[in-house]
Model the fold of this input.
Amino acid sequence: MDIKVQHSKLGTILLGVAALVLGVIVFTNPQNATVALTLTVGWVLAILGVMTLLNALTRWSVIFTQLDLYFGILELLFGVIIINSPAFFVAWVFVLLGIYVIITGCSALFSANALRALGVEHSGGAVVAAVLTIVLGVLVLVSPFATAGLTMMICGGSLVYTGVVTIISGLGMKRDDK
Done:
C-alpha cells in the first residue's frame, strides 16, 4: 500500500514563512522565548494533571484509579510550580545539564588517562577534549541563564535556516493543480 503525502505550494511557503518568523523572534529574544516555552510546558502539565484527576474521579478501578489520582496530583503540582516560577525551572534544568556534562567530562578524562597509561599514541587529544568538556560543564553550571539564551539563539538560527530552505523549496514546486 503506497501512501502519498502531497504538500501544496502555498502551504509549503506559509510553513517556511512561519518557521522564519518564529526563528527571528526566538533568535532576537531568547530569554523571553525560553520563559514562554517553559510556561507552555507548565500549562500543558497543569491541564494534563486536571484531566488525569478528572479521569481518576469519573471511573472506578482499584489499581488504575489510584495511579491516575497520584499521577494527576503530581502533574498538576509540577505544572503549577513551573507556571509560578519558570525562571527557576530553566535554571534548574541547566544546572542539572551542567552537572551531567561535568560528570561526562570526568569520565572521559579517566578514560583518556587510562589510554595514556596503556601507551596509546595520540591520547593527548582525548585528554584535551575531556578537559574542555569539564570546562564547558562548569560554564553551564555557573551561568545557566546565559546557556539557556545561547541554546535558544541556536534554535532560532535553526528555525530561520529551516524557514528559508522551506520557502525556497516551496517556490521551486510546480503550481498547484486544482
The chain has a mean pLDDT of 88. The chain has one domain: 9-171.
